[in-house]
Amino acid sequence: MSLVEQVRSVLWARRRRPDEVAYMLEVGHERFAPDDALRQAVEAEQAGFDGVCGSDHLAPWWQPGEPAPAACGNVWVWLGAVGQATSHVPIGTGVTGLVHRYNPVVVAQQVATLEALFPGRAFLGVGSSEAMNEVPAGMDWPSTDEQLKRTEESLTIITRLLDGETVDFAGDFFRAKGARLYTKPERRPPVYMSAFYEGAGEVAGRLADGVWTLGDPMQAPKVIAAYRRGCEQAGREPGEIILQSVFSWAEDDDTAFEAAREWKGTMVDENYTEAIADPAEIYRKAEEEVSDKEFKAQVIVSSDPSTHVKRIKTLQALGATVMVLMNVSGADPHAAIRVYGEHVLPELRG
């Protein structure tokens, strides 16, 4: 059995067929306090989601209270609580930025420890973060080329450590001297890399166990193709194709929309690439550049479960093996999870 087959057979335990799509709930730590986020994780397992992950943010996409509350608890602390409070769902980050805040040796230690505590369940999602998370921690936000180079160096160290190596590494941005993991779990936790463009997709193909990208019909096929090229160049079998979407459910469509509008900042490309670190500026820019119509076209906002089903099916047809569904239902996130468990997931699984 190949590494990819091992990952799929263990990680997504509810998957009934090799070609069946898995559905993972992402909890938005920018919006929900750690105790509420923990409750959502437990409810997600009970509702039948195939996995749970949490966003790894230091700052939110909006100023707290304008237009919504904000939280940003530490996702790694939360994951330990999630593992203890749930019984079988895979758990991990969605995603951890590798450019500055986190030393790659420590990231490898964290995910290895999570897997040792909850065997067969841990995974690591990684990416290049955003200025809002790194500038407050002391970083001068770099160019997109440097962001990718930093991510690649860090990911190289992490994957080598998880593979059981003792690592000496002297890069332009990160160092390791005789680093090794002394707690080494039986199963190597998989690492999935977030990629929004082709260059990052190729790095994911060379180093990661899958690619994680937005369910955008215009961009996703290009990123997936780049990921496959990276795999081929490295002589590796392609792993998971993880597509992410965002949903908001409420008793009526207007409430579902208004309770999610604070996430408009996620749709502005410059918020990922430029040195924009002030949450108030991020949201102000989003309201100026993203119309309500554009937001509704990108986010699944509806009171009708069948609309959620149709939109998700359209996205997963782009080639997903895993769909990450981020719950931004600010009006009642717990009711939204129940609706997914009772109406959406059963229809998706057919």
Rg calc: 19 Å
Largest sheet: 8 strands, parallel, barrel
Low-confidence parts: none
Shape: globular
Question: Describe it for me?
Answer:
This protein has 350 residues and is an alpha/beta fold. The protein is built from 14 helices and twelve strands. It has an eight-stranded parallel barrel with strand order 1-2-3-5-8-9-10-12, surrounded by nine helices. Helix 2 crosses helix 3, helix 4 crosses helix 6 and helix 7 runs parallel beside helix 8. The model has no long low-confidence stretch (mean pLDDT 95).
Secondary structure elements and their pairing?
Elements: H1 3-11, E1 22-27, H2 34-47, E2 51-54, H3 75-85, E3 91-93, E4 96-97, H4 104-117, E5 122-127, H5 131-134, H6 144-162, E6 167-170, E7 175-179, E8 191-194, H7 198-207, E9 210-214, H8 220-234, E10 240-248, H9 253-258, H10 270-273, H11 279-289, H12 292-298, E11 300-301, H13 305-316, E12 322-327, H14 333-349
Parallel strand pairs: 1-2, 1-12, 2-3, 3-5, 4-5, 5-8, 8-9, 9-10, 10-11, 10-12
Antiparallel strand pairs: 6-7
Helix pairs in contact: 2-3, 2-14, 4-6, 6-7, 7-8, 13-14
At a glance:
The protein is α/β, with parallel strands linked by helices and 350 residues long.
Keywords:
8-stranded parallel β-barrel
